Amino acid sequence: MSDAAAQVKEAEAVADHVRHVHARWFACLPDAEAAIAEYEGQRQGHRGRRPRLWRYHAVRYHIVADTRRTRRTRRGRPAKMDPPPMEPGYRLEVEVEA
User: Nearest CA to 21 among 92, 70, 71?
Assistant: First the structure.
C-alpha cells in the first residue's frame, strides 16, 4: 500500500475516532483525564501489545466543562415556567493536525 493510500485510510480512521470522542460524556474530571490517557496511548494496549499511536496525524485532546439536557423526572407536560433540566459535566475536544 502506498503512503498516500495509507494517509487517506488513516484520515478516515481519525475522523471516526473524533466522532467517537465527541460523543462521550464524563460526569467528573478524573474520568475525562483517564480517557485522555487512554486515547494518548499511556495505558496498556490491546492484549498486552504496545498501544499504536497515529502515524500521519497529530491528535491533541482538551477537556471542556459543559452542560447538557437530561430527561425529566416526572411524567406529563412540564409547566411553562419550568426550565429544562440540565446536567453539568465534561467532554473532550479533539484537535487534529495532518
Answer: 92
